[in-house]
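Convert to structure. Protein one:
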Amino acid sequence: MNILRPIIYVILLATAMARSYAAPVKIHGKITDENNEALEFVTVKVTGTAIGATSDLDGNYSLSVTEADTIRLSFTCIGYEESHRRLIEPKGDVTVNVKMTPATYTLGEVNVTDYRKQTDGMQMIDLGQQRLVPDVTGGSVESIISTMAGVNSNNEMSNQYSVRGGTYDENSVYINGIEVYRPLLVSSGQQEGLSVINPDMVGSVSFSTGGFPARYADKMSSVLDITYREPEAFEGSVSASLMGGSIAIGTASRRFSQLHGLRYKSNASLLSSMESKGEYDPKYFDYQTNLTYKFSDKLKATFLGNIAINNYRFKPVNRTTKFGTSTDAKEFTVYFDGQEKDRFETFFGALNVSYRPDNKSEYTLLASGYLTNELVAYDISGEYWLDQAGTSGSDSGDAIGGELGVGRYHEHARNRLRASVFSLGLRGAMGLGKHNLSYGATFNHETIFDRSREWELRDSAGFSLPVDPDALRVIYNLDSRHDLSSNRISFYAEDTYRLSTSAGYFNINGGVRFSYWDFNREFLVSPRASVGFVPDKAPNWSFRFATGLYYQSPFFKEYRMPVTDGDGNTVIQLNSDIKSQRSFQLIFGTDYTFRAFDRPFRLSAEAYYKLLGNLIPYEVDNLKVVYSGVNQTSGFATGIDMKLFGQFVPGTDSWLSFSLMKTSEDLNGVKVPRPTDQRYSVALFFTDYFPKFPKLKFNLRGIFSDGMPTTAPRSSRDKGYFRAPAYKRVDVGLAYGLLTPQSDGESRSGFWRHFKSIWLGLDVFNLLDISNVSSYYWVTDVNDIQYAVPNYLTRRQINVRLTVDF
């Protein structure tokens, strides 16, 4: 042992000297919060040493440490949970990006939390356990969006929405920074199927109802920006219900992560609650994947893929609709023959390659392709009777009230559309002191193949309408045949400047967007700016102001111009002189955070005014938006949106929103409201546990909103309109936690250790069983009086579901 002792001392001394001369490891990265916003003043320490650093205003940090087998880092910040990272045999430059989780401080029985203050045009939305929320569309993100202030959705079967008086086509949707599109021929919620967003794969959600920055495309109303998550380990979820199911699986290694989502939906039982009885056979399928490969700490590639196939088949048999008032009730009865077969196929792929040479700059190359193949085909004939309620078409003419109208109709359509959009883009971002600069350029190539043929034959009281003694004429006939190829180029640059002063915190964003489209040879310049302020002496308050000139760059539906000849035939022409619709926006908003009932609350309010020009008039029939194809009107939209947030379940928001709005446009010299003029709206999204049953969760989603202006087919509001009844709907759900998420210090053993949670749910859709109106079918009686027969949406329905996370 005496001989070995000096040898051991020499080995230890040599090891110590080797470590002292080892190459240093440079560790750097960016620290963000749960909404991917930069965090400043985060303390970063190397465990067991005095080495440390603090993140700057942009969330960046950097430190150097001697090489070691294992380096442990700790990240601490007031208001956030402490985070730890372990590096195994690190060498050279190492990037460690960290996302901090807000902390909950337990003081006896008081949980102290706070809401993030909104200081820009985008609001972060915490979906929480949105998959447990009762929703006809299957837990979609859009069902949550539709309860936001300023957002309108009057059809529970659809994922489409309008924002502050805009159309369904004025909303941009991004997934992982790539703009995605929806099918173009959808005219009803029955056809629509699954949302383009898979809620099982969503990592973060940001949304803007106006005043959004220049990096977002030329749309006038809103932006929904989705980022899919990157798994850090093996994870999965399975959901099954009476209306379909879904599965999501994710895995991760040191360099590669993958997330796959598969969904299937068949809501035949829900559709059977509608008044049109028959054989409903809807089948909706969707597969999505999000793959990420890290070549190094500076270079990574991400691929997003989507295949969606939605089939809708319907063989109607009969329908009976009662409508009118208590003193003038009517009954509409139809016996059908024929069927409808619709098919919507969507294929989408996007590749992002990002290079980050240092912690203050990043460059991204994007390439994407979108293809939609759509077919809407129906041949449906019907014989109808319109009677005073209490009589029938087969009754004697001496019956009280008697028969008002009898007739036949035949509707035919063969509409085919193939559209593709191929995009190539480059984006960059860099930090210069307190400035964050970003810029980007995109090239789009669009091709459209359109073959549409529609006609309707209507026979009233033995006469074909319109009546012509010399020929058989149809009441409606449309033909459209087009092949189009066009290119779009866009460029944007914006700067975000954050400043802390003795007065408070400022967040200033300014940018400009340029775009050109070779179809109409139009060049657009869209300046946008916003300012956010949190006063130092009143930190519970925050204020924001946004303004900008926004454009609605026309897509295929907007520049289809119907031209009618002397015989009533309508031919669609493409208007190459079409111009982008324009919206100059002024938005002022404020937030106030406070505590009540030992819970955090936030009250938000926004007032806005939008001056609209170069408008393309349109009318809405269910979900079908029919444009005039010509810039011919101007108008405005103004209103106020208010929202009260509260947390009744830790980590999950509930809210009550209220909106008032007024819109107007000058249509052929007549002042009329816009077709999406929703004068008032109240929405409630509520989640809570039962006090004595903590495993039992209650969810409620309710909407009460004004009806929108409606016109007769192929007419316009300047000739006359009326408002549909208000939309009133309440969906409730109960979810029982067979296995609830683990709390701190809790552990599981055996088979159940593989599961995070298991929930069994019971949903009641349309709890109050209210008949809401989606559109109208127009009938002409023998006295040439037109009646608007309401087409009602779904009635009360029960759903059972099982949700498993592992």
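Protein two, convert as well:
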Amino acid sequence: MHLETDLSAREATPWRDPQRTPAERADALIPLMTLEEKVAQLVGVWVGADASGGGVAPHQADMLDGRPWETLIEHGLGQLTRPFGTAPVDPAAGARSLAEAQKQIVAASRFGIPAQVHEECLTGFATWRATVYPAPLSWGASFDPELVEEMAGRIGRSLRAAGVHQGLAPVLDVTRDYRWGRTEETIGEDPYLVGSVGAAYVRGLERAGVVATLKHFVGYSASRGGRNLAPAPMGPRELADVLLPPFEMALRLGGARSVMHSYAEIDGVPVAADESLLTGVLRDAWGFSGTVVADYFAVRFLQTLHGVAAHPGEAAGLALRAGIDVELPNVDAYGAPLVEAVRSGAVDEALVDRALRRVLIQKAELGLLDADWQPVPDAAAELHFDDPENQSVALRLARESIVLLRNTDHILPLATDRRVALVGPVADDPMAMLGCYSFPLHVGVQHPEHGIGVEIPSLREALGRLCPQLTYQPGCTVTGGDTSGIAAAAAAAADADVCVLAVGDRAGLFGRGTSGEGCDAADLSLPGVQPELVRAVLATGTPVVLVLLTGRPYALGPETDAAAAVVQAFFPGQLGGQALAEVITGAVNPSGRLPVSVPRDAGGMPTTYLSPPLGHRTQVSSVDPTPAFPFGHGLSYTTFEWTNAAVAGSADWATDGEASVYIDIRNTGPRAGTEVVQLYLHDPVAQTTRPVVRLVGFTRVDLAPGETARVTFTVPADLASFTGLHGRRIVEPGEVQLRFGRSSRDIVAAVPLRLVGGEREVGHDRRLQPEVQIDRRSTREANA
């Protein structure tokens, strides 16, 4: 029975009054609630979870207690977990089902508060018949935050139309070890790139009215050995200067309203129990006022996996005290164990109230406390999540993300009248285009009777439309040891004018793939017998275009040097096959740049470009970590000339000021193209060791043949800040360089500058990005 009996009574209740602030409404409601009603708002229920153990993650069945739905919602409910993303459901039917569930939740509890609904949305709304966009490494490869924002806006509008309030994305973990299975979910290995692109995704989702959830705060990607959930050994500077900045950027520049903590333990302390991170950094230092939600089952993991709690009630107390407001995906430690811990005095009820206040404020912001809230989405019967507009954005992003790594003797673009042998285990596999959190791979593979739900052309299908003289041989499978098909593949290559050899990954979960959550790699060799296939095809002497469809960079050592061209795609989404075919044949001029380095040695890792001098090649180690292709690398079918790099004004750069540097970019080739101008900071002498270079700015520049543009970066000195000897972020005076580069290794010009003034401490209010200006100029003006 409801507390109010009619609409007028609800409007007269302060916590129902939309004229009051969300905080005032929450403060009015909390004193009216029983302890059971309070904790009910701090949990989720996975309505599609399978108690028999057939869910998507290990340990899931351990968390379900078999209570009926009516019992779970009798005191209210904080969140509904993935009602669309658990099994294939028609969009309109799913929306009606969700609306019915919300009606039941409202009717069952005393206050009639609907649940906040969340879904996965990393590569699109994770539901059946929804567009599957490129994976986050492809976002990074595009170096195009504006397009990523547009994509996220479309995802957000789909979520809201279906009645979903919160999306569990983006992933802001900075790649530290490519062997980690979730590398495919990261945006790249540079914190500035990750933060810039990630903040753009957040803006798109939030502007559509959906709560963006930053994942995984923090340290998850730095696990020892690249193993999922393994301990993360790192010092405070790596944490502060590499792993935390993307989250800070996404909060300040994107406006994210939720954060999901990571499974990691850093220096022996699980993040789920780390008050210094979840409260000290996130709230006290950064001023975050939204909700912190638990990664799935992570509160109980404090007991079962980390061993820092003896029982669920103690785990709940640790998590609540650290700053976790909502337990997901199901009610567990924050249910009866938490109630008992509060009643026994082991956990202060004030901690429950603190978390509850944050939850209710967010629900008020979403309209879930309004008296006139309605559960039925607008035009639910007309829902279409894979419309032409969504597909257009997916295709544009896929095109921009494909990276041309090598193009010896200009073998590409490929003439469509040539005899082409298409070889490789991913060449005719639509699923090779998708990341592990795409609905077809995350959920759909468990329901083959429903079909994929969207059209996903394979590379064979897309390239075959453009190259009529195309033959195909798989050669081998992605995994396994069967080499019986390699001879036929090599023979097909030998009989062709050119061979397109497509190798790579199969995304999956927990060992059911070669990339994805729980699919870590022992080294960076291509999976299975694919290296043997590559060697056999290259040995034929036929020119080979090596295409990599992967979720991580794999080693491209001397054995692949014979490939005439190398093309890298990072799970480019449902239209990735079309985009690849267009790039290979020249219908699209490639403009992608590497968001991660491509190693030369499969075992000489982990390392990224973001290393101090001793992290690079030295005379005191026999291991050379120099990559085959560096961060930021990518080629075009046209050529660009970079000239006239200089500082605008004085070379003295105040530690509290800004410096403007510019360079002219001219398209000297025969066709229109896009250059990605990258700006790196080089700090040769500092009080702590610094990366040789680190990215502090970038922009895409579209140029017609013969066209010139002057690109100016106005860089705040704040971007030269780092964590100093005493643990404070500082801008230090001294000699530095701002370097213009085609990549982190291909530096075109270095502009020497001198930071002047006293050492300056900076905080959360520092400037996080440069200003970029592009002035297009005629050839005559450029030569003047």
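Confidence is low (pLDDT under 50) at residues 1-7, 49-64. Residues 232 and 266 are 5 Å apart (CA to CA).
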